[in-house]
Amino acid sequence: MGTGDNDVDLAVLDEFCGVALGDRRLEARLRQIVPALAAKPDHSFPKVFADTAALEGFYRFVENDKTTLDRLLAPHVRRTVERASEHDVVLAVHDTTTFDFSGGDERKGLGRLRRAGHGFLGHFSLLMSAEDRQDILGVAAVLPWSRTRETPTAKRKAKKISYEESRRLPNEQQRWGRAAGRVERLLSGRTDVIHVMDSEADDYALMATMARMGRRFVIRCGYDRVLDSTAADGCKLMGAVATKPVVCQRTVTLSRRRRPPAGGHQRTRQREVREATLSVNAATVVLRRPSSSDKTLPKETQVNVVHVWEESPPADVEPVQWYLLTTETTATTSDILRVVDIYRCRWTIEEYFKALKTGCGYEKRQLESYETLLAALGLFVPIALTLLRLRTLSRADPPRPATDVLTETQVEVLQRRFADHGAATLTVVDALSLVARMGGHLRRNGKPGWLVLLRGYKELLMLEEGFKLARETN
């Protein structure tokens, strides 16, 4: 969208431009596969490739040793870096998701998941513009792994090794630092980066190392951390922040959250859409290095803390409460609210995971091994990003002209197709709501999702072609 006469398939194909698979035949096959998947991202492979030869060609493609995740993603990462370089500051939103392929026969190379099941995990780094948080730039890094071996934590719990020995072994917690380091190297000298992470990243080693290297971050606190010796006796982080005055209040709409998997964390409990009045304050604290941490780390690390909480939640409702650890300034109310808004962008990566799992049906893919599933992931990462952009633009605020994302011909087609709409000039939101209507969306169902937008956009492309042919004939 927004690419002149090119359609969404070609926009996705552009994310693979310059791919180097070491075999021209594979690269030619890729140019056939990507538009087919982009046209029907949620369909099974046999339905996408209805021709037997095309389906067999797809399976041979993902089974080839040269079609690795890193090779397939390399062009998209380059394009993401190019887009990021156009901004002064970008957000790198990091998070981990589980890909569950339980059911049926076990597949080669997949491992156990934390609670149950069979699959693998992926740690993603999604870049967004810090100036316009609706501008999603792309995926800069994907770090996948499969738990085929016993983890250091499992060995420690089984008393096979000591706690100190487990700390010295490579562990999954290190993924946060590895991903941040990769993003920093990609964007070095191009733009500034603020790393945004959930409470799983609340690790002294990570924060101390990033602060020492001058890297910027906003990380949700998951522990009531011990402060340095200048703090009051026994006073920890949360108690120190509690003494600070409220600097402002803000009323926000909390989005609906579905029920988490069995055993999910308390903070991810199901909730309905509701209004919440949040209070905000801030403090500067000095964290003390935990006794169990690596002794080569700094003994102390100074961070700013922004506390967001709901003072009067409705009865029987989980109140909102965040402690955000950051290197960003909190000198003014505006600075403090900026930190809150930066952290709120973290939910975009959750939406991206939904685009992968629901919009692209990734966990339903019937491939036989970890390697072939990774190859398929390399194909779907840019497609899922396109789906997320479609939905994000359909909810854009403030209003932008429709020609920012659609061609002038497409806008004219929409105005003729929906003459009853009444608006002389269409905004992005107006136009994409009409696109969603063509895809079967009903207003009573709320805001449009990825699939109705994509279906509607496909119909718009066909109408546009017919419109052009009619114009050329006359």
Describe this structure in words.
The chain has 474 residues and is of the alpha+beta class. The protein has 16 helices and ten strands. Strands 1, 2, 3, 4, 5, 6, 7, 8, 9 and 10 form a ten-stranded mixed β-sheet that branches. Mean pLDDT is 86; it is low at 1-8 and 262-267.
Break the fold down into its secondary structure elements and pairings:
Elements: H1 8-14, H2 24-39, H3 45-48, H4 52-63, H5 69-84, E1 89-100, E2 111-112, E3 118-129, E4 136-145, H6 152-157, H7 163-168, H8 175-187, E5 192-197, H9 204-212, E6 216-220, H10 237-242, E7 248-254, E8 274-288, E9 300-310, E10 321-326, H11 333-344, H12 347-359, H13 370-393, H14 408-417, H15 428-438, H16 450-473
Parallel strand pairs: 1-5, 5-6
Antiparallel strand pairs: 1-3, 2-3, 3-4, 6-10, 7-8, 8-9, 9-10
Give a short synopsis of this structure.
The protein is built from 16 helices and ten strands.
Give the strand tally: 10
Strand portion? 15-25%
Secondary-structure class: alpha+beta
What is the count of helical runs? 16
CATH class of the domain at 239-342: Alpha Beta
Q: Please state the average pLDDT score.
A: 86
Reported for the largest beta sheet, the result is:
10 strands, mixed
* Secondary structure: helix percent: 25-40%
Order of helices and strands: HHHHHEEEEHHHEHEHEEEEHHHHHH
CATH homologous superfamily annotation of the domain at 239-342? Transposase Inhibitor Protein From Tn5, Chain A, domain 1
Second-tier CATH architecture of the domain at 239-342: Alpha-Beta Complex
